[in-house]
Amino acid sequence: MAADLSQIVKAYDVRGVVPDQWDETLAELFGAAFVQVTGARAIVTGHDMRPSSPGLSRAFARGAAARGVDVTEIGLCSTDQLYYASGALGLPGAMFTASHNPARYNGIKMCRAGAAPVGQDTGLTQIRELTEGWLESGAPQPAARPGTVTGRDTLEDYAAHLRSLVDLTAIRPLKVVVDAGNGMGGHTVPTVFAGLPLTLVPMYFELDGTFPNHEANPLDPANIVDLQKRVREEGADLGIAFDGDADRCFVVDEHGDPVSPSAITALVAARELARNGGHGTIIHNLITSRSVPEVVEEQGGTPQRTRVGHSFIKAEMARTGAIFGGEHSAHYYFKDFWNADTGMLAALHVLAALGGQDGPLSALVAQYDRYVGSGEINSTVADQQARLAAIRAAYAPREDVTLDDLDGLTVAAADWWFNVRPSNTEPLLRLNAEARDEATMAKVRDEALSLIRG
């Protein structure tokens, strides 16, 4: 096919419309390129429930095996289950998913052995260049002896590993509604939660890559409306929603009210620090709530701030030896999970924390949710840098604020802060603001928006 790889090879993964932008022929070439760039003698692959995923995954395996590499196929899995296999088996891996994107999309998340990410600067550019070369000059020469392709079921081992990382012995009986969004949570939750004192109320557990009920993106408020309603109807203790490939989890309390991912980050950070004797580094990106570094310091840990994006989190996890990292996008990273992100492990921590005491979830998370946030507000602008310069000019003379440029521009005062970041792919500026109270937050948010939008 005449593919424009610049449109589908992104900063962290491959993603595009099937078959318009890529197909099984291209997947086979990606498989050959992946094993050449990683130098692998064996790899592991997995895929989600999208209609195109089995074929693309098998084509990738064919391309790898043709180069003499043995392929272990774990079949249907969540993205963090593929990371588990990569870590436990010590193999580079490839996961076929487009996460929360619509049904016609698919993609590949790739990692080196031990779930180390493959991104633009860590192999993805070379994979793209090799594939482009083969598209122009013909497929690569097959190895004298092709590799084998074998199947392996890792679901039970994945679930056992997660449960070994959280003390679940003291959980009281809980009623939990889980919205899998017709994604891979419907495959993994029953096995991971098996044997726990939970009354599980499943929603949309049927694997269906056409997403007939709602998009599998729980960060969009429209996609958790069903969950919120069901939690209230059932009188449940909490609700949990997973995205399409089940690597992110989103939580609502007993009232059906959303729990901020920053509050979940702070809660899990406190628990991970307790597991490690009150010592350790916790990574958080710069748009998480100030509650996160405050809680970390109160618990004896060291907070470390990073740019937004999983490649930055994972790099800082590795550099600092951090025990845990969290993003406001509901990605949660664990040292004991090869520094990879797993929403399922974060969900187990929430269940253990709630089930280990008698109060409701709303009271438990209140101690971790101390500020009022705006959420992310996107504005289309003609000139990103000009608008950032205007914001800087407005605040630089003020003695009561500090400015920093770690990721876009952050303006911070004693009781509030805001960050404005340019999108890398669209003419947008992204605003996040936070303050001690609603009125201050609204004032700060509106002042920033007036400068952003001119």
TrEMBL record:
Q: Name one Pfam family in it.
A: PGM_PMM_II
Q: Where is the Alpha-D-phosphohexomutase alpha/beta/alpha domain?
A: 7-131, 156-256, 266-371
Q: Which GO terms describe its molecular function?
A: intramolecular phosphotransferase activity; metal ion binding
Record InterPro entries: A-D-PHexomutase_a/b/a-I, A-D-PHexomutase_a/b/a-I/II/III, A-D-PHexomutase_a/b/a-II, A-D-PHexomutase_a/b/a-III, A-D-PHexomutase_C, A-D-PHexomutase_C_sf, Alpha-D-phosphohexomutase_SF
Q: Which UniProt keywords apply?
A: Isomerase, Magnesium, Metal-binding, Phosphoprotein
SUPFAM superfamilies hit by this protein? Phosphoglucomutase, C-terminal domain (SSF55957), Phosphoglucomutase, first 3 domains (SSF53738)
Question: Is Phosphoprotein tagged as a keyword?
Answer: yes
Domain spans labelled Alpha-D-phosphohexomutase C-terminal? 376-448
Classification via NCBIfam families: PRK09542.1
Q: What is this protein called?
A: Phosphomannomutase/phosphoglucomutase
